[in-house]
User: Fold this.
Amino acid sequence: MAEKAHPKKAPAHSALPSAPIAEYYRQMHLIRRLEEEAARAYAAGKIGGFLHLYIGQEAVGVGALAALKPEDYVVTTYRDHGIAIAKGMSSRKLMAELWGKATGCSGGLGGSMHMFDAENNMLGGYGIVGGHIPLAAGVAFACKYRGDKRVTLCFFGDGAVSIGGFHEALSLAALWKLPIVFICENNEFSMGTPLSRTLSVEDISIKADGYGMARDRFFATDVMLVKERIAEAVARARDESLPTLVEVRTYRFRGHSMSDPAKYRTPKELEEHKSRDPLTLARKKLIESGATEEDVAKIEAAVEAEVVDAIKFADESPSPDVNVLEPTTYDGPFAA
Amino acid sequence: MRTLRYREALREAMIEEMERDPLVFLMGEEVGHYQGAYKVTEGMLERFGEKRVIDTPIVEEGFAGIGIGAAMVGLRPIIEFMTWNFSAVAFDQILNNAAKVRQMSGGQFNCPIVFRGPNGSAKQVGSQHSHSMEHFYATIPGLKVVAPAFPADAKGLMKASIRDNNPVVFLESETLYSVKGEVPDDLDTVPIGVANVVRQGADITLIAYSRMTHVALEAAEIAAKEGISVEVVDLRSLRPLDEETMVRSVQKTHRCIVVHEGWPYGGVGAEIVDRLQRLAFGSLDAPILRVATFDVPMPYNAELEQMCIPGAARVIAAVRRLLGK
Ligand SMILES: Cc1ncc(C[n+]2csc(CCOP(=O)(O)OP(=O)(O)O)c2C)c(N)n1
Assistant:
């Protein structure tokens, strides 16, 4: 998917295995490596503000976006790096944005939480919990209005399920039969609070019932499974113009953000989840699909080259000029 | 006299008031088990238990409303917003319920509630997380709005806010939480609505509050080296505004600059200018200037962000301009 959006794709790519899992593994591994490097850059002071990593959740974004066409839309939260990459944004644009550089996807003005890439129909990461869910329904509304058969995916965390924006968006999407898939990435915690202390029910997907909306719920260890199940919801949106609420169960391996030491869970719990790392599973599946260790090593080498290139690009790029602030605030003359 | 950090002073005030009055309770996201997103409420769950230190889901409108309802019938809630940015989700509750219930009930119901949390910019947290919400809240009759700059004022104003029978918007700052200051052992309340002259000067008055008071003091220090004598008024309260202290200072210095975070369009700075030109017109030798955040959403890039937020250099430039230097 979104081939052309990877100008910096590994040069050896054409020689790599052609099974879909090869591309999914490549994306997942790329996201993992970019996130690891982002964490290091944060510690080194090259990235500021909040940094929420996607490590552990890669199968959700990669699997879900594999079910989309390039013209489909995506809206997500501040935990948006992996989703942006899976939607086809380049590693260069991602890293440059994290570095706050003019060459970043949002010109260095948005930062980690606000990855926008119009070219790839990536409509952004948003910082206010739940605030983007009605907006995503609005994107789906426009698709229906224009009759262009595009689908919108809206990602959010388990912590967003209590807030009004979530309910208002689901209510309207069901009422007006909007072509959208609401994907709750249930990683068991909203910041330091486990789901059991934020919701009166354990199954998030049943929230759909009150709105008469289709629903689904599954574990996201296997990227192929994520793709299949999201594809069903996408088909429902595209063919019948109906929304779905999908609860995808996952786990984040790092703290909520870089400032969170994640003392609320035991090392044992974390290790257990890491033993079911979706990235390890994807690699295994790739080998099972017929790829040799050498093939996989080639993919990994290409990813490494892409990561190194992206960091260098971010390092060497210029900062945005102060003159961009006014024209990026208004289209047309500044309205003081 | 003890030295406390700003966050410790706030915590001490809440603990003392909760010990004094069993109707006071604390509610918000991550205030309990996580010990507070910025550790202001550290240890309070252990001390008071889950009945009085309540972790909420991410539902600002919901828990702001719950606090208001509880306050109407006699409890005294302290509602923490993880940051004031998220109070936008609860704005309707604060504007339409907390601020109005007394007047629209003909004075039958009070709303003794404190909404508190960090306000203003932090560091590179981008446009959605860098709001200075005081400019919205200070415009609302029915609310009181306070924004202390020092630990002692943080403690005294918090105690006064909890005891006040009106809804109080209490604005802290992430960048102030670790700031240390002397706090008198027997400090009780600091009255809401009284400003403080934190530096005496003769040539020009800087009016500021919250973190900008520290910026104003830094600028005053630099100006002193250039032979300019700067007076700094720390407002502490934004509603009610202490007109008397501001006017007295301007009558002495004849020149004034308001330094605040947040956009220059309207807001607290504009309000101060309006009042001073009416109340001290005869004393002014020059137009009152304002140093505010640039009139754009906050950019993420570190250098641009620093340009946007008022700093000592911009304040000094305004001081020189006003004195024709
Ligand atoms: C309205 C609002 N309230 C509070 C916050 C602070 N906050 C940011 S992320 C977060 C936790 C969200 O958890 P979840 O929705 O499960 O998503 P995850 O971070 O796990 O991906 C909180 C409380 C916010 N950004 N917006």
